[in-house]
Specification:
The complex is a heterodimer of chains A (109) and B (116). Chain A is mainly β. Chain A has no helices and 11 strands. Chain B has 116 residues and is mostly beta strands. Helices cover 0% and strands 50% of the residues of chain B. In chain B, strands 2, 4, 5, 6, 9, 10 and 11 form a 7-stranded mixed beta sheet that branches. Chain B is globular. The chains are: A mainly beta (109), B mainly beta (116).
């Protein structure tokens, strides 16, 4: 079993739709969690951190469920500019930083 | 704001050749990393450096060496390139808090390496 698993997609959704991604992790000692966005042939960039209490940034909501060991990302009112690959990242201290393989989102006009 | 700068952006090597990928950050971060990204594999950690003067192996260190020259610079060397090392390489840096949790990682623009 991979340490961090994501559905690779692609998720093809129409503009304005709501889409959700999940990411599961296997190590219960994992300490911090992030969602990154990667555009085609570009470097990953931080989208948002993920906290136990959940956090929201505009149209984006991230949740952490420690009991079930998964994190989620919800995107509301999808825009064409949201088309990208979304990577979940799990830290167990700086010795262990594991990226998921990414979920590809394509927002269709 | 330069952030993390990697050079070169593209490189083609012949099998057996050597090269060094350079990385520098201007954010005064303690931690620096080298990753490779292959289709369907995600980003895999090659080596990391928690602070100046220290380096440690990541998930896929074979065939690579690193050097943390100073706090700013972290280089990755391929001593004898192999076709299996064809990949996109990313350098990243982040700040480690006192509890060993890292904050956001900032990435360089990547190096696209082809070994023929």
């Amino acid at each position: 079993r991979k340490e961090v698993e994501q559905d690779p997609g692609p998720f093809n959704v129409p503009e304005g739709a709501t889409v959700a991604f999940n990411c599961t992790y296997s190590n219960s000692a994992s300490q911090s969690f992030f969602w990154y966005r990667q555009d085609c042939r570009k470097e990953p960039k931080l989208l948002m951190s993920v906290y136990s209490s959940g956090n929201e940034d505009g149209r984006f909501t991230a949740q952490l469920n420690r009991a079930s060991q998964y994190i989620s990302l919800l995107i509301r009112d999808s825009k064409l500019s949201d088309s990208a690959t979304y990577l979940c990242v799990v830290h167990q201290g700086y010795q262990k930083v594991t990226f998921g393989t990414g979920t590809k989102l394509q927002v269709i006009p | 704001n330069a952030g993390v700068t990697q050079t070169p952006k593209f490189q083609v090597l012949k099998t057996g050749q050597s090269m060094t990928l350079q990385c520098a950050q201007d954010m005064n971060h303690n931690s620096m990393y080298w990753y490779r990204q292959d289709p369907g594999m995600g980003l895999r950690l090659i080596y990391y450096s928690a602070s100046e003067g220290t380096t440690d192996k990541g998930e896929v260190p074979n065939g690579y060496n690193v050097s943390r020259l100073n706090k700013r610079e972290f280089s990755l060397r391929l001593e004898s390139a192999a076709p299996s090392q064809t990949s996109v390489y990313f350098c990243a840096s982040s700040e480690a808090r006192g509890d060993h949790i890292n904050t956001e990682a900032f990435f360089g623009q990547g190096t696209r390496l082809t070994v023929v």
